[in-house]
Structures are given as structure tokens and as C-alpha cells.
Request: fold
Amino acid sequence: MKCKKCGNEMPEYRENHSSGYTCPKCGLGWATSYFEPYETDQTEYTIIIFGNDATKRNIRVVAEYANINYLQAKKLIEMPEATLFSGKAPEIIEKKKALIENNISFKITPDFTY
Ligand SMILES: [Zn+2]
Reply:
């Protein structure tokens, strides 16, 4: 991208949800809001857990991320498939990371590509 005023090369920058160009020579520039694709995704995703052992550790993890008590979590784990959580992409990303860290088997519907 070349500066419209002086023709200098303008480097693109990206920070805190904005991206844009600033001319290092004359200061001309502009910024636009910038969001990661998952941040503007309005799809409601569902995390489904399946095939996990009802160990104390797994139960505790599931209780925490589904926001339910120990007994409810145990029941969920013992079901062939159970909905753990529904929400938008930013929340799903966080929970997905935590589930992977804790070795919980799960799937996400619809296909979650982030
Ligand atoms: Zn310039």
C-alpha cells in the first residue's frame, strides 16, 4: 500500500481489534475495526461430550464447564452423549481448549473450524 499523499510505502498494522495503515513519513493513515472471524460469528455452537470415564477428575472438569453440580456432571458423563454447553464461538473456543487440556472427548456441532 502506497501513501496517497507522498507515495511512501505504508506498513499495515493490526492491534486491539483495529487494523489500518499509517504513513511513516507524513503521518497520513486510517484505521478500520478488525475482528477475528470467530468474534463476529453469530452461530450458536453446542459442545457434546461422549465416551468419557466417570472419573473424579473428569466429573470435576465437566461440572465446572457445564456449570452444574457433581452429581449432575456424573450423570452427563455416564450418558452416551450429552450436551455440555451451548454458546457463541468465543466461549466455545475457551471451553474447547480446556476440554482438550483435560483429555475430555467431545464434539462440536455445527462444524467448528476455529
Ligand atoms: Zn505519506
About this structure: The chain is about 30% helix and 25% strand.
